[in-house]
Design goal:
Elements: E1 5-14, H1 15-28, E2 33-38, H2 45-59, E3 63-69, H3 78-87, E4 90-94, H4 106-109, E5 116-120, E6 124-128, E7 148-153, H5 155-174, E8 179-180, E9 183-184, E10 205-212, H6 220-231, E11 235-240, H7 247-258, E12 262-268, H8 274-281, H9 284-289, E13 293-297, E14 305-309, E15 313-317, H10 323-327, E16 331-337, H11 339-356, E17 357-359, H12 364-367, H13 370-389
Parallel strand pairs: 2-3, 3-4, 11-12, 12-13
Antiparallel strand pairs: 1-7, 1-10, 2-5, 5-6, 6-7, 8-9, 10-16, 11-14, 13-17, 14-15, 15-16
Length: about 400
C-alpha cells in the first residue's frame, strides 16, 4: 500500500444532503479549472443543480470538464448536453459504445468508469460513492439513500487532480471523432494549466488516494483492504452496497474473526440487482459460522462503500466489494489514517446498525424456506458462471 500523505483536511460528508451543497459551492468558487467524474448523471433536481454550477463556472472562464460513463449515464439528458455545450463545458463519455451483442464483447462492456471524483483548482477534491442523482424519496416517506463522500483539502487534493487530468486525457484521445447517442462527443482540449503550484498543508490528517484500473493499479484497492484486515486487532467494520467478495477477501475476514477481531458487515436489505442480492446471501452461512456479524439496512437503498479498521484507519470511496468493482471498473477510494475521522465514520455506521438495521441471525440458513434456499443457491451458481465467462476467476 502506498505511503500516507500528511497535511490534509478530510471532511466526512453524509448522503447527498451534505455532499451536493459542498460540491456546488466548490464549483461556484472555482477560479481556473474544475473536473467532475460520475457514473450516473440523472435528469432530476440534483442533476439540474450540478449542471447549472458547471455551466456557471464555464461561462465565467473556468476550464470545466465533465466525464460521465457511457453505460451509467446512458440516459444523459439532451437539455444538459445543450446547456453545458452553450456555456463551454467540455464533455467526455467513458466507453460510449455500449452494446449487448456480440456475446464475446461483453467483457469489455463491464469495464466501466464507476468512480465519483471531483477536483477544483487542484486545491479541493471530492471522492466517494455518491452519483449525481436525487438521493431522497420524492414522497418524503423514506430516508435518503445511505452513502458517503469526503471533501479533501491539502496535498492529496493535488493527487486527485493528477488522476482526473490523467483519465481525462486518455478518454479524450480514445473518443476523438466519435458520436454518442445522437450527438458529438466534445474532445477535451487540455485547457487546464499543465503546471500548477504545490498545494500547502491544510490540516494534519494523513491519507492516501487509491485508484483501480486495468493496467498498473488492478488490485490496489483490494490489496489495501486486505492489508488493513490482516493488521486489525480489535475491529473491522464494513458497509458495502454490493458484497460478493473474492475468496481471498472472505478468507481474510474469517481469519480476522478467528483472531477475536470483531468483524461487522452492514449490507443491503433491499437491492436493485436481484441476482447479486441473492448470490451474496449464499456466503452468509460460512461468514456467520466464523463469528462474523451481519446486519442488513432496510429503510432505503444502501449505496455506501466505507470501512473502519481498529477505529484508526478508514476508507471512503466508490469501490464495492464485488467482482465488478474489484475486477473490472475504474474506482477511487481514499484511505485516511486519522483517529478522529475514523471515530466519526465508525459512530455514523454503528448508529445505522444499532437504530435502523436488522441483525442476520446465526441460524439464518435454517430459517429460510426451501424455495428461498433454492433461489439463493441458483443465483450463486449463475453468478459464478458469469464471472468465469468474463474472466474473473478468483471466486471459489
Amino acid at each position: 500500500m502506498p505511503e500516507f500523505v500528511g497535511g490534509n483536511r478530510i471532511t466526512l460528508l453524509r448522503n447527498g444532503e451534505q455532499f451536493f451543497p459542498a460540491l456546488v459551492a466548490a464549483i461556484d468558487a472555482a477560479r481556473t479549472e474544475a473536473f467532475l467524474e460520475t457514473y450516473i448523471f440523472a435528469d432530476d433536481e440534483t442533476g439540474s443543480v450540478v449542471a447549472g454550477a458547471l455551466a456557471r463556472a464555464a461561462a465565467r472562464g473556468v476550464a470545466t470538464h465533465l466525464l460521465i460513463d457511457g453505460y451509467g449515464a446512458r440516459d444523459f439528458a439532451p437539455r444538459f448536453r445543450k446547456m453545458l455545450a452553450d456555456a463551454g463545458v467540455e464533455l467526455l463519455v467513458f466507453r460510449p459504445q455500449v452494446s449487448a451483442w456480440p456475446f464475446w464483447k461483453q467483457r469489455g462492456r463491464l469495464r466501466r468508469m464507476h468512480r465519483k471524483l471531483a477536483s477544483v483548482d487542484g486545491a479541493v477534491a471530492f471522492v466517494g460513492g455518491i452519483n449525481i442523482i436525487d438521493d431522497f424519496d420524492l414522497t418524503g416517506m423514506l430516508p435518503p439513500r445511505y452513502d458517503y463522500a469526503v471533501r479533501i483539502e491539502g496535498p492529496l487534493a493535488m493527487q486527485a487532480r493528477t488522476e482526473a487530468t490523467k483519465l481525462w486525457t486518455r478518454v479524450a484521445w480514445a473518443t476523438l471523432g466519435r458520436r454518442w447517442r445522437g450527438f458529438e462527443i466534445l474532445k477535451g482540449t487540455a485547457r487546464w494549466h499543465r503546471h500548477v503550484p504545490g498545494v500547502p498543508a491544510a490540516g494534519s490528517q494523513r491519507a492516501v488516494l487509491l485508484v483501480r484500473d486495468s493496467l498498473r493499479h488492478r488490485r490496489d484497492i483490494e490489496s489495501a483492504y486486505l492489508e488493513q484486515i490482516a493488521a486489525a486487532r480489535s475491529e473491522v467494520l464494513i458497509a458495502s452496497a454490493y458484497f460478493f467478495p473474492t475468496w481471498r477477501f472472505r478468507r481474510a475476514l474469517v481469519q480476522a474473526a478467528k483472531r477475536n477481531v470483531s468483524v461487522v458487515l452492514l449490507l443491503q436489505g433491499k437491492s436493485d440487482h436481484p441476482l447479486q442480492h441473492y448470490a451474496s446471501r449464499s456466503l452468509y452461512r460460512a461468514l456467520l459460522a466464523a463469528g462474523i456479524r451481519i446486519y442488513e439496512w432496510y429503510p432505503s437503498e444502501l449505496h455506501a462503500k466505507v470501512a473502519v479498521f481498529d477505529g484508526s484507519v478508514a476508507t471512503v470511496g466508490s469501490s464495492n466489494i464485488d467482482p465488478l468493482s474489484l475486477g473490472f471498473a475504474r474506482e477511487a477510494n481514499v484511505f485516511v489514517d486519522d483517529v478522529p475521522f475514523a471515530a466519526e465514520l465508525r459512530a455514523s455506521v454503528h448508529e445505522a446498525i444499532e437504530n435502523r438495521s436488522r441483525a442476520v441471525p446465526a441460524n439464518y440458513w435454517r430459517r429460510l424456506s426451501l424455495a428461498l434456499r433454492a433461489r439463493i443457491w441458483l443465483s450463486y451458481r449463475i453468478a459464478r458462471l458469469l464471472m468465469a465467462i468474463y474472466g474473473f476467476d478468483r471466486l471459489r
